[in-house]
Amino acid sequence: MGNGWKRISLLLVVMILAVAVAACGKNGNGKVSVGIVLPTKDESRWVQDEQRFKDALDGTDYTTEILFSQGSSAKEKENVETLINKGIQVLIICPQDGDAAAAAVESAKKAGVTVISYDRLITNTDAVDYYVTFDSVAVGKAQAQYLVDNAKGSGEPLYLYAGSASDNNAFLFFQGSWSVLQPKIADGTFKIANSSEAVALQDKAELSRAEMSKIIGQVTTNWDANEAKNKAQTHLTAAGADMKGDVAILAPNDDTARSAADVFASDKAVTSFTVTGQDAVKASVQYIVDGKQSMTVFKDVRNLVKDAMGMAVSILDGGTPETTGSYNNGKIDVKAKQTEVIVVDKSNVKEKLIDSGYYEAGDFTGL
Questions:
Q1: How far is the C-alpha of 160 from the C-alpha of 157, rounded, in Å?
Q2: Per residue in 310-334, pLDDT tens?
Q3: Cα separations in angstroms, 345 against 109, 140, 255, 301, 352
Q4: How do residues 164-175 score in pLDDT, each as one tens digit?
Q5: How far apart are the first and last CA of the chain?
Q6: 158 in helix, strand or coil?
Q7: What is the mean pLDDT of the chain?
């Protein structure tokens, strides 16, 4: 009987090992579990995300592959096809252009892939399952509130800049900013310096998408530092003395904020300026430490990546991811997980970015 038991025990061990090997080897066939498509390597933000995504799957049995679209929706679609062919079960995608990405995710959906829109919403398609995002309206509100809190007297010139008209987030940021700035334009705290479209709409508390489109069309930076620099130079050259002195600048992100800051700092007729940013990129953190950029909205990408990967693993494990709200993408309400944002300026830069372990003190001078 002893031998019989030994044989059964051995058989059990072999079976358990076989199951364990099968589980560990579920991606040993060269298949990729999670495909990730990011918009470009030309913005520091996305390069940082790449590493964080790799780190997030450490210690799990799942594999990931990250591809960049280099600013091209055609390349993005090609990237998605490549990942579908590698057997992905979940696609995490930050679209280059929210509308154009619809075709790419529709082919993923047809292949049975669960689609998570990451940071930017993919619009006008029902092929999006989830959206992981920072509360973009809250970002715009935080930027505008900083300008309001630091306004000097009344009639302060306000220079408006926006992201790319092809990025749904640019509209959400602007919507948030306008909701805070408009009452302060109406009461004379600010006067719009660089957009005839915004002046024409300055009495409207809420703007339609078409109205926002008119303003964004005039003040877009396309998220490009050079474009921001050229626009700022053009606007300052055209500005009269009454549009200089102490000024407020709504810059949509850090790369455009530094460009605008450099241009405004070089104009002798600009006495002081408050300029907003977003993303807490290293170069802008140094600018904040040096007093060249006023603030940034810190979106702790570690948390966004964690939320996206948590969602992906939950799907891979056969569960249902938790969500905190929803966003209408023009076709459906997409279930979303929102990650909170933090305002950082000189007063709390060390606490929020160094003490939290996001960056190291050695990355900066003058801290």
A1: 10
A2: 999 999 999 999 999 999 999 999 9
A3: 42, 16, 16, 18, 9
A4: 998 888 999 999
A5: 75
A6: strand
A7: 92
